[in-house]
Amino acid sequence: MADYAPTHTELQHFKILLSALEQGSYHYKVRTLKITESNARCPVDFSNASIFFEREQSPPFALGTLFRKAHKILSDYIESPNRNRPTIPEDPDCRKALDLLLKFLQNIDKVSESLTDASSRSGQECRWILKLAQHVFSQLSLNPKYKYDISEEYSATLRCQCPGKDTVIGDKCETSFGLENGWHGKADIIMTDVPVCEVSGSTDVGDGRSTPSERPSSIFGSETESNRSIELISDEKFSYHNYSQIAAETITFSFLRNKTAKNEVTLVPSIAVNKRCIQVHFYDSVNDVFLQSGIVPLTDPGDPKSTRLNTFAVCLIWLVLNHNLFCTGVEKIMKRSGFHSLVDVDIFSNEVKAPCNLEKISCQKWLSDEEWPDSVSVIMM
To answer: Which residue in 314, 316, 318 sits closest to 141, CA to CA?
Structure first.
């Protein structure tokens, strides 16, 4: 553990963070979602997933509800009687994870600069998410190694595209998972056991299934907080189609992880991110609970033009990537999503696998073929 005592300003920032975890401010909250329909039993890629969601009437939960252990660690550290010798966790992994967060926040300006690339263009988004994995995700996780998609759009270089051209610590390999007769596809990045989906910004609200009041930037918090969020990321909203893909990946990966790793906490997260914001979804394939967090600006919310990473986004990433340490799982009062009633749970649980790189839909291309057999059946009238 680094011998590091927070300054007065840093201490105030930590207190605001702790308050957000407790009260759900700054979009640090989660809500349960109900799933009424899906094409989960069709052999389609995640990008072609279709899911209908229904808004639950129950109020959202503060994010700290899921991360009680992390809340206690941060609370003990912040409220230490001796500021020069703050209280640190006894568990070595928790102690190391806290050290990672503290060191990252100390160097947040330098990290932010590493993500900045004046030559980046819209066609280089994949390289950008690699930089994010290299300089942010890997630095906040106890397991820094990551896997990234082997598709051609990802550069084969062993150097990061940051200004410093750092050596990539991730592995270019297969990131596909899913079911042969259900949802399947590839994650952009997999951080140990957290899939990361890069989402393109969208100014629409889907295909008519969502109303303006349901837009992701205004689903949480007070009207003032929502308006501020709309101003910050009005050009980077996630569309209905984005959410279908994100949910399909989250649900399928939860079934995969709970099949291969028997953990006490069966709630599994995923991260959706673009250049302006980040959002986390969770699914518990055992208890059938689907959760969605608020959208958190990735960069400084005080300045839309700023490239400095937002502390709240950093801490959210830290919590999620180390969820095996910090997450305490779902609460009994959290409502079920209803997904189990739409599929054969045993099939989903047993047949999900990785890798699963299939294109079953291609076998249906004969429907559009122009070539027909020469012979025909004639029915006499």
So the answer is: 318
User: Are residues 279 and 217 in contact, defined by beta-carbon separation less than 8 angstroms?
Assistant: no
DSSP conformation letters of 51-109: EEEEE-SSPPEEGGGT-HHHHHHHHHHHT-SSTTS----SSHHHHHHHHHHHHHHHTHH
CB atoms inside a 10 Å sphere around CB 360: 14
Q: DSSP letter string over 158-197?
A: SB-SSTT-PBP-SEE---EEE-TTS-EEE-SEEETTEEEE
Q: Report CA torsion sign: 237, 243, 244, 245.
A: positive
The letter for the amino acid at 251 is I
Residue 63, Cβ density class (10 Å: 0-12 exposed, 13-18 middle, ≥19 buried): buried
- Cα of first residue to Cα of last residue in the chain, in angstroms, is 89
Cβ neighbours around 222 below 10 Å, total: 9
Alpha-carbon distances, residue 348 vs 53, 179, 184, 233, 259 (angstroms):
20, 7, 11, 36, 10
Out of 168-177, 227-236, 250-259, least confident range? 227-236
Tokens of 251: 């649900």
How wide is the angle at C-alpha 64 spanned by C-alphas 61 and 68, nearest 5°?
A: 130
The answer to whether the beta carbons of residues 350 and 173 sit under 8 Å apart is no
Q: How far apart are CA 280 and CA 195, in angstroms?
A: 10
Q: Count H helices, E strands: the chain?
A: 11, 13
> 358 vs 224, which has greater pLDDT?
358
The whole-angstrom separation of Cα 243 and Cα 230 is: 18
Say if 143 falls within a structural domain: yes
**Tens digits of per-residue pLDDT, 110-135?**
999 888 753 444 344 446 788 899 99
Q: Considering its fold, how many domains does the chain have in total? A: 1
347: domain range? 30-59+121-360
Alpha-carbon dihedral sign for residues 110, 112, 114, 118: negative
Residue 161 contacts by C-beta under 8 Å, 6 or more apart in sequence? 117, 120, 124, 127, 128, 130, 131, 155
Q: Are 315 and 108 in contact (CB under 8 A)?
A: no
Separation of alpha carbons 174 and 26, rounded Å? 36
User: In the chain, what is the greatest distance between 2 CA atoms, to the nearest angstrom?
Assistant: 98
